[in-house]
Amino acid sequence: MLYVIIYPNNFILGIKMYSPQYLGPNEDFLEAQARVCTGPHQTRPLGKKESDGPHPDQIFEIILDSLNGKLDSKHAVSEAQMGAFFTAMTIRKYFPESTQWSTAEKDAFNKYYSILNTHLPKDIKFLIDPTLEYISQNPTEHIVVTALQKILQGQHLGYTETRQMCEAIMTNEVKPALKAGALIGQRMNRETYEEVRGYLDSYYAPKNVQPIDVDNLTHFGQPYDGATRYFRPTLFIAAVRAALGQPSILHSVDMMPPKNGITEEAILQSLGAKTDLTLEQVSKVITNENVGFGYVSQREYSPGAYNIRELRVHIKKRPPWAATEKALQFFTAQKNNYMVIGYYHIGYEKPLLQMALERGCQGAVAIKGEEGTSSYSLRLGKPSTPERMAVNYSQGFLCVNGKREEFSLDIDPKMYGFDYQINPRPDVISAEAYAEEGVAALSGKKGQIYDRIVLNTAIVDYLLGIYADPYVAIEQVREVIENGSALDHLKAYISVSNEI
Predict the structure, then answer these.
(1) How many Cα atoms sit within 13 Å of 473 on the Cβ side?
(2) Cα–Cα distance between 86 and 365 in angstroms, integer?
(3) 117, 139, 469, 488 - which has most CB atoms within 10 Å?
(4) If pLDDT is split at 50, 70 and 90, which confidence band does 324 have?
(5) Are 443 and 348 in contact, with CB atoms under 8 Å apart?
(6) Where are the alpha helices (DSSP H) in 37-78?
(7) What are phi and psi of 225, to 5 degrees?
């Protein structure tokens, strides 16, 4: 069957293609989304008191003004925003009493819905009331609508349903409101392990993982939205590890909203490296004995995922796959595969480590590091408790003689000779500044950047079982920095990436 609908001129082979460009977003509406588009215990109902963000009446007035064309394109509420908001409102009917609709929200809905109903598109009406019939405009959109019929009732999806839904969202064949509703709904319903697996494999299928001609390889997974408070050392850690004979692969983007922080790709660009290498080219860089590490951009391995960056602005919250993309695997080494994953929200570390195990890793470590990265702070605050995991809390596994051995501990830098009274922040936060400071550290300049690179490289390799003694690891790291070989590997990467 051929699907054609009347919408702005964007058709491919008769299937409607929706433009990824959005109106707005409206900032007041984003504030309301920040309060209600979250979990069953974190949601903050609107209108309970004056400090509860925008009043529900104000939110519905903004929607009406947007639908009637009274707001200019920069300040209008986008369909994606409405999709996220109304999905959240629908799902909250299944939440605990304290996070269900407030009296003010109920009153506003009763006051405005009859007039809204005459203006809202059919897809958004469906998100408000999933019992209404909504006819999907093409087979790809039908996948998302079918998934939403469960999501809107607080139900979970199976692995295949989740994967197909995510793959559909990464196309231009699904309305923005439906995409936004599916992503926010999954986040609010709290994912099962099967759903987490589905997110990961929709980005990069396991069948696409290729062997690489190195004995050992470590995948580093960091938040794609970057750093805005602390130095991002992973690129320089990879250069040090390469000098120690431990290949690494990094993956990220140039910039990811809504945080838009400093990423490895941005630092590489500042250094003059090429950042659009294909995975085949990345393999050649890693196996080059003068380089020994590689970087792949999301633009190359998953263009569809990269192309929905703007949607992430309009749903306000990070989509559920923002956590799972850090556990991606692109290559398998001949002997030992390792994974290092940063995380922030407690609960994600266990499924991420399980996926690393299922993908054949001999060792993996999940670190509650700075800004959700795997980067250790130079000062341990309060130690972890069963209820609260501190920054620097690390847990993981090693496969020894065919058996999985688990570990968990806080990393206290003082134990390894790094005695800081406060955890220092960089003076300048920019890709150029991070590039300059990282190169200076690899050139032997002492200070907090140097110490971060040494601590993080040595402790990670110790936890992965590459070194039996963390103090020996620290000595080895310092040696390859001091003799210049770590910097040589970084320079080689810049040169080879431009020549390949």
Answers:
(1) 24
(2) 38
(3) 488
(4) confident
(5) no
(6) 56-67
(7) -85, 0
**pLDDT on residue 19:** 52
The answer to whether residue 18 scores a pLDDT higher than 80 is no
CATH 3.40.1030.10 in the chain, residues? 210-499
3-class DSSP assignment, residue 358: helix
379 backbone φψ class: left, alpha, beta (φ>0; ψ -120 to 50): beta
Question: pLDDT-based confidence at 4, cuts 50/70/90?
Answer: very low
486: helix, coil or strand? helix
Map tokens 């939110």 to a residue.
Answer: 59
Instruction: Outline where DSSP puts E strands in 222-356.
Output: 248-252, 293-297, 331-332, 336-342
pLDDT of residue 5: 29
How many Å apart are CA 262 and CA 226, to the nearest integer?
A: 5
Q: Which residue has the tokens 């925008």?
A: 54
Distance CA 67, CA 81 (A): 13
Task: At 33, list the tokens.
Answer: 């989304």
Which CATH number fits the domain 210-499, given the four candidates 3.40.1130.10, 1.10.3720.10, 3.30.70.20, 3.40.1030.10? Answer: 3.40.1030.10
pTM for the predicted model, two decimal places: 0.91
Q: Are 195 and 150 in contact (CB under 8 A)?
A: no
* Beta strand segments in 330-412, E: 331-332, 336-342, 363-368, 393-400, 403-410
More confident residue, 87 or 53: 87
Give the number of C-alpha atoms closer than 13 A to the C-alpha of residue 188, restricted to the C-beta side.
39
Do residues 304 and 171 make contact, with C-beta atoms less than 8 angstroms apart?
yes
